[in-house]
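Saturday, quiet lab. Running sequence design on the structure tokens for the scaffold JK sent over.
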């Protein structure tokens, strides 16, 4: 049996995985509710979220200054327009387009001029396979090559998270605590109920996509619990902190700047991306081929 690789980073999130509120999502971020239900109302909701993701880094022993520092690891721009959501990561030239009415994502590489569709059913299928692999690996005794007991518990928690949730009504601070994962979300009221619905629907699906794209991220069940708590209290996050406790805790923070209208530059971006999608010169490839090409590109960038 192939054993899934486990390390501390698996319980954390890669920067891209967080951005959504995150694609932390993180990413931490946003989405249009099913058009079949909200159709013209949702389509009328236009807003923009700019996200900055940082990681708290501990200074090495013997160094001077503060014990910790924040390192910005990613930025993203998320645009809600005409029933779609466009999530743009400028540093890698990638746009993820969410179309809830068609139950799919379209990922566009603006630098490599190629695109790939990913349906909701495909994502759920891949997540189901990953879930079984994690569950099987966590069940293997350490003496037979399985993980230490603490790691096994952490993996099982990812599959079935159980948080102690608290919401401070006055400060609008939402906290989800556990021995394995902790979320702190500073929240505000959305401008309109439809905007919150759009955001949370997108946040549900982008965390699923992020895990498939970046398997070292948290399995999405924990993030989905946070989204459900946001629904319960009818709030939208403006800052989300993710902590993975331990001897060397992993901490990420996603800050979301929400603007309740699009500007000319936003519309220009959308027009350019839609033109690229229709351009015969933009290659449509399989999801596997797209992942392979992006991994090659990433390896060249990090050399």
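Result came back. Writing it out in full:
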């Amino acid at each position: 049996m192939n054993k899934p690789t486990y390390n501390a980073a698996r319980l954390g999130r890669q920067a891209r995985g967080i951005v959504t509120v995150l694609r932390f999502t993180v990413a931490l971020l946003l989405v249009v509710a099913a058009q079949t239900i909200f159709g013209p109302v949702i389509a009328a909701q236009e807003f923009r979220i700019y996200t900055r993701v940082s990681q708290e880094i501990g200074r090495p022993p013997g160094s001077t200054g503060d014990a910790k520092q924040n390192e910005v690891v990613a930025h993203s721009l998320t645009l809600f327009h005409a029933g779609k959501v466009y999530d743009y990561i400028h540093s890698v030239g990638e746009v993820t387009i969410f179309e809830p009415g068609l139950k799919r994502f379209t990922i566009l590489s603006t630098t490599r001029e190629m695109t790939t569709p990913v349906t909701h059913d495909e994502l759920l299928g891949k997540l189901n396979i990953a879930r079984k692999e994690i569950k099987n690996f966590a069940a293997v005794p350490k003496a037979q090559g399985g993980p230490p007991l603490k790691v096994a518990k952490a993996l099982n928690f990812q599959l079935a998270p159980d948080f102690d949730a608290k919401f401070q009504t006055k400060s609008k601070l939402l906290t989800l605590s556990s021995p394995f994962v902790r979320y702190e979300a500073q929240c505000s009221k959305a401008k309109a109920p439809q905007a919150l619905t759009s955001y949370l629907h997108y946040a549900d699906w982008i965390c699923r996509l992020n895990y498939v794209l970046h398997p070292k991220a948290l399995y999405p069940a924990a993030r989905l619990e946070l989204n459900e708590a946001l629904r319960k209290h009818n709030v939208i996050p403006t800052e989300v902190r993710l902590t993975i406790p331990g001897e060397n805790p992993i901490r990420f923070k996603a800050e979301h700047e929400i603007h309740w209208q699009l500007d000319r530059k936003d519309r220009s971006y959308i027009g350019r991306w839609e033109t690229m999608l229709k351009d015969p010169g933009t290659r449509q490839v399989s999801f596997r081929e797209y992942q392979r090409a992006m991994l090659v590109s990433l390896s060249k960038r990090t050399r």
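Notes for JK: The CA atoms of residues 242 and 303 lie 29 Å apart. Residues 1-44 have pLDDT under 50 and may be disordered. Ask whether to fix the surface positions before the next round.
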